[in-house]
Design goal:
Distance between the termini: 60 Å
Radius of gyration: 25 Å
Helix content: 10-25%
CATH class of the largest domain: Mainly Beta
Strand order of the largest sheet: 15-16-19-23-22-21-20
Oligomer: single chain
Structural class: alpha+beta
CATH topology of the largest domain: Thrombin, subunit H
Length: 417
């Protein structure tokens, strides 16, 4: 009997959600837009997303990644819209928040347009909310879902949304049953797991739209300033606290140093034919920042591997350890158009716990952003004859001061048992 009551309650809730979604779509579809990047050569769309009007004067919110080509490829593309009635037209880029993946574009209008109101507060956890957007260029739809609070495993504010956010819905609004905007579609992890930009970044974006239009150079300078400020805060979150320590082989290493970084471990102990023991601890941020199609930044990763072998001579083991150093790579996506080659320095380093390492520190500069660098650090311990620790971290898109502060803390965090 209880199962029957539960089943009927679920069906009733689903029916109410579908009716609410239908009403929301009918009431607010005139405020929704497909946002298109048009390639000037082909005169056809090269990418699409969604957007929603937030003012009668034609201001429209979307995701930054939807319109990023209009910043970095401004001579070859243009931004256009299509509304619910099939009307098309051009859009001007007005403001961006690259860190939170938000942008504001503007439609030129002769008369006031319908628009959505942004809520003052987020709903209670478990409340029904509704994602609106244009998946796969199929037309505007409404997806019912649930507000599950802010994600605790992210440095960036993200709403955990139980519902299907599909490609093309990026930049669309998520509203409550009163039609007030609760957040903005930004990403999906599949399996009914979505992530939304919440109210605070959206409200900040709308409160800071400049009166005059920016040039391409001004937008690139704005992106650099936002990245520098964000990465300063991110690195500070790491270095301004004590790092928890765990054991790895005969070493003590930092692990789970911040709550928004995921760590994983592994070993090859169960492999019968292995000639050496490898025990790994790898930690990485789950987020990065989209700058444009070939450049991601904002990543931080920390990796440690304990290597030990009774089958190797001392010289062979050190060659084996050196291979671990040579195999380290960048932690983010970038091309030669975006960054310079790494410039590296090699040193023998002794930290406060008398751990001796051969250490390599490499930096590469961002070509469009003078104050940003990617950092690659890798070190191999020299204190054991047939065992050793390989330590590795990468930082992407940080200033030199933050790079040096993080490097010092990382080096001093390793000790022997």
């Amino acid at each position: 009997m209880k199962l029957l009551i539960f089943f009927l309650a679920v069906c009733a809730f689903s029916s109410v959600a579908q009716e609410t979604a239908k009403d929301l779509f009918n009431d607010y579809q005139s405020s929704l837009y497909q946002i298109r990047i048009i390639n000037n050569d082909s005169n056809n769309k090269s990418s699409i997303g969604s957007g929603f009007a937030v003012s009668a004067s034609g201001l429209i919110v979307t995701n930054y990644h939807v319109i990023s080509d209009a910043v970095f490829n401004a001579d070859n593309v243009r931004i256009e819209f299509e509304d619910h009635a099939g009307n098309q037209g051009s859009l001007k880029l007005r403001y961006i928040d690259v860190v939170n993946d938000l942008a504001v574009v503007q439609r030129l209008v002769d008369s006031p347009l319908p628009y959505l109101h942004v809520a003052d507060n987020l709903p209670e956890q478990g409340s029904p909310i509704y994602s609106l957007g244009n998946p796969h260029d199929l037309g505007m739809i409404v997806v019912p879902g649930t507000f599950n609070g802010l994600s605790k495993r992210s440095f960036y504010q993200r709403i955990h949304f139980t519902g299907s956010i599909n490609p093309g819905m990026s930049g669309g609004p998520v509203v409550n049953d009163a039609g007030l905007v609760m957040g903005v579609n930004v990403a999906t992890a599949g399996n009914q797991i979505g992530f939304l930009v919440p109210l605070s970044p959206l409200q900040h974006l709308l409160a800071n739209i400049p009166e005059s239009e920016f040039s391409q150079e001004q937008f690139i300078a704005l992106i650099e300033n936002q990245l520098v400020d964000n990465q300063t805060d991110l690195v500070s979150a790491f270095i301004q606290q004590d790092w928890p320590i765990t054991e790895l082989g005969e070493a003590k290493i930092p692990a789970d140093v911040v709550p928004f970084m995921s760590c994983w471990g592994d070993s090859n102990r169960d492999q019968e034919n292995a000639h050496f023991l490898s025990v790994e601890n790898r930690c990485r941020l789950n987020d990065n920042i989209f700058v444009h199609n070939s450049l991601r930044t904002g990543a931080i990763e920390m990796e440690f591997e304990w290597l030990q072998s009774d089958d190797f001579s001392t010289n062979r083991f050190y060659r084996f350890l050196s291979d671990g150093i040579d195999g380290a790579g960048a932690g983010n996506l970038a091309t030669e158009e975006d960054v310079t080659n790494y410039r590296c320095n090699t040193h023998t380093v002794n930290n406060r716990y008398a751990v001796t390492t051969r250490s390599i520190l490499c930096l590469r500069a961002y070509k469009a952003f003078d104050r940003l660098y990617d950092v690659l650090y890798v070190a191999a311990s020299l204190d054991h004859q047939q065992a050793g620790l390989v330590s590795h971290f990468t930082l992407s898109g940080v200033g030199k001061s933050e790079a040096m502060s993080f490097t010092e803390k990382f080096i001093e965090a390793v000790s022997w048992q």
